[in-house]
Design a protein that fits this description.
The N and C termini lie far apart (45 Å). The chain is built from 4 helices and no strands. The protein has 2 domains: 54 residues; 37 residues. The longest helix is centred in the C-terminal third of the chain and has 35 residues. It is mostly helical and 92 residues long.
């Protein structure tokens, strides 16, 4: 992310002034997150080329919807596991 963009789109916390720049460690984490997205985009490009840009919007929506439900399903699994861990820690 460019320095100009980081300055314009400051990440803030509730306790910080809206114009205050977020701590560097958050930008470092953001850059790691962004790099993961770039890897996924590159992998998709290598596998499918530009086909995604030529797909009918409804087809793209259906693909997105399937991915969305996958994410929700994994979220439920993680939530259930965290509930079990929380219960285990509470019982001690």
């Amino acid at each position: 992310m460019s320095e100009d963009l980081q300055t314009e789109t400051c990440i803030t916390t509730e306790s910080s002034h809206p114009k205050e720049r977020a701590p560097q460690h958050l930008w470092d984490d953001w850059n790691v997150f962004r790099a993961e997205i770039e890897k996924r985009l590159q992998k998709g490009y290598e596998e499918y080329g530009d086909k995604s840009f030529e797909m009918h919007p409804l087809e793209i929506f259906e693909e997105w919807e399937q991915e969305f439900f996958d994410i929700l399903g994994w979220g439920f699994i993680l939530w259930k596991r965290m509930q079990k861990l929380k219960q285990h820690l509470t019982d001690k």
